[in-house]
Design goal:
The chain has 370 residues and is an alpha+beta fold. It contains twelve helices and eleven strands. The strands form two sheets. The chain has a six-stranded antiparallel beta sheet, sandwiched between helices. A five-stranded antiparallel beta sheet has the order 2-1-5-4-3, with helices on both faces. Helix 1 packs antiparallel against helix 2 and helix 6 runs antiparallel to helix 7.
Length: 370
C-alpha cells in the first residue's frame, strides 16, 4: 500500500509539472526568455521525478520478488510437509490436499479433489470419521481420531491420526482442515507390547500352575506315604484332589468279574452318609460304552471332556441313581485316568469340576496322570 501511494504521488507531481509547462508556453509576455528558463527547470524537475519513479519501480519489483519467494516457500512447506494436509467440506468431500496427502493415499492429487475421503478408508472406520467430522463442524473445537486408511497404489492399509480444525476459507465458507499423521509404527509397537504382555502373563500363569502342580504332587506323595493301607492311601488322595484339582473325585477298583467297586469318593457337597453309601456301591460295566470309566478301564487310556452335557454325567461318573447332589451341582468338566501298575489296569480315578470353576485341559490331564 505504501509503495502504491508513493507512486501515485509521483505521478501527480509529473502531471502538475506538465500542466505548468503548458501554461507558461501559452503566455505572451517574455515568452522566449521565460520559455527557455522554465523549460530547463521543468526538464530538471522531470528528470528528478523520473529517477524517483525508477527507484520506486525497482523497490516494487524487489517486493514482488520477495512475495513470490515467500509464496513458493509456503507452497513447498505445504506440499512437502511430513504429514498429509486435507481440506474437507461438511459432507467429507476433499477440497484441497497437499502432495504428501496424495502420496499417502497413492492417488494423483488432481483425482482426489471433490472425491469423498471415505473412499480411501477401511469400511469399519467410516462411521468414526463421520462422527469426527460432525463434531468439528458442530462444536468448532479441535478434534482428534484414529482411523485406518488405504493406499490405493500399493494396496496396503495404514493407521492414521486425524487432527482437525474448523476454519473459514477465502470464500468465507466453513471448512475442516485436517492433518493426517501416519501412526502405523506406533500401532505396531503397541500391538507388539500387548502381545509380549499376553505372552508374559501366559508364562507367569504356566509357571504358577507348574508350582501348584509340584506342590500338589509333593503333598500327594506325603499322604500316600503316611499309611500302608491301600484304601486309606486312596481315600487320602481323593481328599487331596478336592478342592485342589476337582470338586468331585472318585477312585474305583476293577474287580475280577469286570465290575468295579468305588473305593473312595470326595465331594464337598456330599454328607458323610452319602460318601459312605457311594463307597459301598458296586456297578456293572457296559464293556462297549464309548466313554466313561468303562472306556478308560477297557483301553487303559485317559479321557477328558472339557465341557460335558448333563445327560452324560451319570454314565461318565457312575453316580448312583439315588444320589442327585452331583447332578444338581451342574458338573461342567470331566476327566478320568487309569490306575496302572506294571502295565496292569487296577482301576481309575475320576475328576469332575462343577459350575464352570475349572475347564480341564491337557495340563490338568497330565497332572492327573502323574
Amino acid at each position: 500500500m505504501r509503495e502504491g501511494g508513493r507512486q501515485g504521488m509521483a505521478l501527480e507531481k509529473v502531471l502538475a509539472l506538465r500542466k505548468r509547462a503548458e501554461e507558461r508556453l501559452q503566455g505572451k509576455e517574455g515568452l522566449e526568455e521565460r520559455t527557455t528558463e522554465d523549460l530547463q527547470q521543468l526538464i530538471q524537475e522531470l528528470q528528478v521525478y523520473q529517477v524517483e519513479l525508477e527507484i520506486q519501480n525497482e523497490e516494487l519489483l524487489i517486493t514482488q520478488a520477495q512475495l513470490e519467494e515467500s509464496r513458493n516457500k509456503y507452497s513447498d512447506l505445504y506440499d512437502f510437509a511430513p504429514m498429509g494436509y486435507f481440506t474437507f467440506d461438511k459432507s467429507g468431500l476433499i477440497l484441497e490436499v497437499n502432495l504428501t496427502g496424495a502420496s499417502q493415499l497413492g492417488v494423483e492429487r488432481s483425482f482426489l479433489v471433490q472425491r469423498p475421503f471415505s473412499f480411501y478408508m477401511a469400511r469399519e472406520y467410516q462411521e468414526i470419521f463421520r462422527a469426527h467430522r460432525q463434531k468439528v463442524f458442530e462444536e468448532g473445537t479441535p478434534q482428534t481420531c484414529e482411523i485406518k486408511l488405504i493406499n490405493k497404489r500399493r494396496g496396503i492399509s495404514f493407521y492414521a491420526r486425524l487432527n482437525s480444525l474448523l476454519v473459514q476459507n477465502p470464500q468465507d465458507r466453513e471448512v475442516c482442515r485436517t492433518a493426517v499423521i501416519d501412526i502405523t509404527e506406533r500401532k505396531r509397537a503397541e500391538e507388539e507390547r500387548d502381545r509380549l504382555l499376553i505372552q508374559e502373563q501366559a508364562v507367569r500363569a504356566e509357571a504358577e500352575a507348574a508350582q501348584r502342580r509340584l506342590a500338589f504332587l509333593a503333598e500327594a506323595s506325603r499322604l500316600l506315604a503316611t499309611s500302608f493301607d491301600y484304601q486309606t492311601r486312596l481315600e487320602n488322595l481323593a481328599g487331596l484332589v478336592v478342592p485342589h484339582l476337582a470338586d468331585w473325585c472318585a477312585v474305583d477298583i476293577l474287580e475280577e468279574d469286570r465290575s468295579f467297586r468305588r473305593l473312595a469318593v470326595a465331594y464337598a457337597g456330599l454328607s458323610k452318609e452319602d460318601l459312605v453309601q457311594e463307597q459301598q456301591n458296586s456297578y456293572a460295566l457296559d464293556a462297549r460304552a464309548p466313554y466313561g470309566i468303562s472306556k478308560v478301564l477297557r483301553t487303559g487310556q485317559p479321557e477328558i471332556f472339557p465341557d460335558i452335557p448333563n445327560l452324560l454325567v451319570a454314565t461318565i461318573t457312575c453316580v448312583a441313581e439315588r444320589s442327585k447332589i452331583l447332578w444338581q451341582a451342574e458338573p461342567m468338566s470331566y476327566m478320568c485316568v487309569p490306575l496302572l501298575t506294571h502295565g496292569r489296569i487296577l482301576g481309575a480315578i475320576t475328576f469332575v469340576s462343577v459350575k464352570s470353576k475349572r475347564c480341564y485341559n491337557s495340563t490338568d490331564l497330565a497332572l492327573a496322570e502323574d
